[in-house]
Amino acid sequence: MKPVPAFALVAAALFTAYANGQSTEVVTPGESAIAGLRSTKTRGVVSVQADPALSDGRLVLKVVAFNSTGLPAPFDDARVKIFTAAGKQVGLLSLQRLIDEVQAASGDRTAATEHQPANYSGPSTSRNAYGQPDVSGYSGANQPTSGVVSPHTRATDGTTRANSDPQVQQQVASLKAAILQPLLIEPSTAAGGQIVTEKLKFSRRQPRTLRVTVDFNGEQHEFSFDAPPDQ
User: Fold this and answer.
1) Residue 179 has pLDDT above 90, yes or no
2) How much is the pTM?
3) Which of 76, 79, 168, 196 is the most buried (most CB within 10 A)?
4) Element at 6 (helix H, strand E)
5) Cα–Cα distances in Å, from 37 out to 28, 158, 167, 210, 230?
6) Looking at the domain 7-92+182-226, which fold is it?
7) Contact 130, 3 (CB under 8 A)
8) What is the pLDDT of residues 5-22, one digit of tens each?
9) Domain map of the chain by residue range?
10) Which has the higher per-residue pLDDT, 1 or 60?
């Protein structure tokens, strides 16, 4: 039996909740998003669910939207904004940035096998219990290339070989399947994906509360919750 993607299960739950007339708009400060939060408005339902822990300081958040209207609705990561308690917006990593990090890390590791294998370690993209590509363990390039390899020799050659590495190709395919990309959500249909933030930085006295706004179908859904613990 083909495994069911995790956010497909969330989408099914959103459809059931909407069909049953359930409205559970969640905007409670300090509430955990690990179990999943949902906001219901006239033209759509939005659900967010955070991974249990930050990945290398980054928040991984699943965002799924259900279209309650009779017309297709566009949706992408540009409609999702995240702010700290101080009001500072947290940047999101693009799919290309994540792919570049996977290829760069693997390129360093591939080239280093000819020299010092112990100096390098790379990211991995696993699958969750439902078989859905999961970027929660994604850590990016763990080793800097500046001052370690020549950008015109070993790094270039290593990255080229990394691009043809079956393991890297699988990781890239997993990222493309998991990360939220521009899409059109048909009526009475739910869809979404994952977003990955830049590293979150909190001072000792600063609350770890995050505010997430999602603009969908001309309505703004807002969530407030504590950031997951560091991994």
Assistant:
1) yes
2) 0.66
3) 196
4) helix 6-19
5) 10, 42, 34, 13, 20
6) Immunoglobulin-like (2.60.40)
7) yes
8) 444 444 444 444 444 444
9) 7-92+182-226, 98-176
10) 60
